[in-house]
Amino acid sequence: MIDVPRTPVPFDPEIEPALAKILQPEAPPFTPETIPTMRAAMAAMFPPAAEVVGDAPVDVVERTFPGPAGELEVTILSPRGLDSPVPGLYNIHGGGMMIGHRNMDTGRLLALVLELGVVAVNVEYRLAPEHPHPAPVEDCYAGLVWMAANAAELGVDPERIVVMGGSAGGGLSAGVALMARDRGGPKLAGQLLLCPMIDDTNTTVSSHQYLDTGTWTRETNLAGWRSLLGDAAGGPDVSPYAAPARATDLSGLPPAFIEVGSAEPFRDEDTDYALRIWATGGQAELHVWSGAFHGFDMYVPEWHISQAALATRNSWLRRVLGLG
Predict the structure, then answer these.
(1) How many C-beta atoms surround the C-beta of residue 50 within 10 A?
(2) Per-residue pLDDT for 2 more than 90?
(3) For residue 37, how many other CB atoms are within 10 A of its CB?
């Protein structure tokens, strides 16, 4: 076995006090027994979208669409008074494939709808381990197909759709982009991948540097991949739609925006993904934020680096969507 350096890149001292408040020393491990309780606790943290939107000039619609194994839910956020097609954001929430709910991303999407004048479609998908691969990514792909097919009704320009998500949602977004390319599906204008979870092998240096510190640790990450892939995790026969780092061909993909913290397990796999896209002649914009831990923008939104990251994302979205 290769001896992997394990000294972590330090967190920015400015956010260490916030990190200490976020972390729960007595938090139970992710197991099939504890996951339902964790899901319930997380769901209770995030109110319904209409409550978050409040009196902002944004319409909120809850819809269902036919998924691969039954009805699936989406929340649609649209600028009020929309009278012509605008770009669309198709969002996939995170949670390590095991937990999470679309409501956790409402604040992020609301800000983008208000800032950019776009329509956001926020999808719910089945979670592992009850629904292992390919259920999550197939659900998400079905939602993208539904959005594109109903673009006129949603007020979306079907030529200007970006798939986006953070963590597991970023990994699923990358998987959906691969599926859309391979299946001749909806043509995407871009893929916004925020600290995406894309490599089930957990063999990079950074995947070994955060064993028990930070908001997402090695053990938690292993639990997520085991939930999604079972005994196949880390083995030779894993689909690139489950773990996009497994893809042997990254050509022909929509422009990618890839963001990650320097102080988190996904740093190296995400950096490598950008390098491999460039190697095909593809377009990728990579940002590694110094001293940032996993999910930093959601946990410490006032931090100056979080603000810089949000502005940088918006700049990229404006460019790929042709917004002034």
Answers:
(1) 15
(2) no
(3) 11
Structure tokens at 33: 């027994």
3-state secondary structure of 297: helix
Q: Please, what is the angle between helix 304-321 and helix 106-116, to 10°?
A: 50
Which of 187, 188, 284, 182 has the alpha carbon at shortest distance from 241?
Answer: 182
Burial class (CB in 10 A: 0-12, 13-18, 19+), 153: exposed
How far apart are the C-alpha atoms of 220 and 215, rounded to whole Å?
Answer: 10
Q: How far is CA 277 from the centre of its chain?
A: 18
CATH class of 13-321: alpha beta
Buried b (16+ CB within 10 A) or exposed e, 274-293: bebbeeeebebbbbbbebbb
**Closest among 191, 26, 210, 197 to 95, alpha carbons compared:** 197
Q: For residues 131 and 220, what is the distance between their CA atoms, to the nearest angstrom?
A: 18
- Residue carrying structure tokens 């809850």: 62
CA-to-CA distance for 115 and 92, rounded, in angstroms?
20
Tell me the two tokens of residue 97. Answer: 């494939």
Kindly calculate the radius of gyration of the chain based on its CA atoms and give it in whole angstroms.
18
Q: What confidence tier does 1 reach under pLDDT thresholds 50, 70, 90?
A: very low
> End-to-end alpha-carbon separation of the chain, Å?
52
pLDDT number for residue 119:
98
pTM for the model stands at: 0.97
Q: What percent of the chain has pLDDT over 90?
A: 93
At 25, the pLDDT band (50, 70, 90 cuts) reads: confident
**pLDDT tens digits, residue range 169-186?**
999 999 999 999 999 999
Q: How far is CA 257 from the centre of its chain?
A: 12
User: Counting Cβ atoms within 10 Å, is residue 304 exposed (0-12), middle (13-18) or buried (19+)?
Assistant: exposed
301 CB neighbour count, 10 Å cutoff: 14
Domain boundaries, the chain: 13-321
Retrieve residue 302's tokens. 């006032």
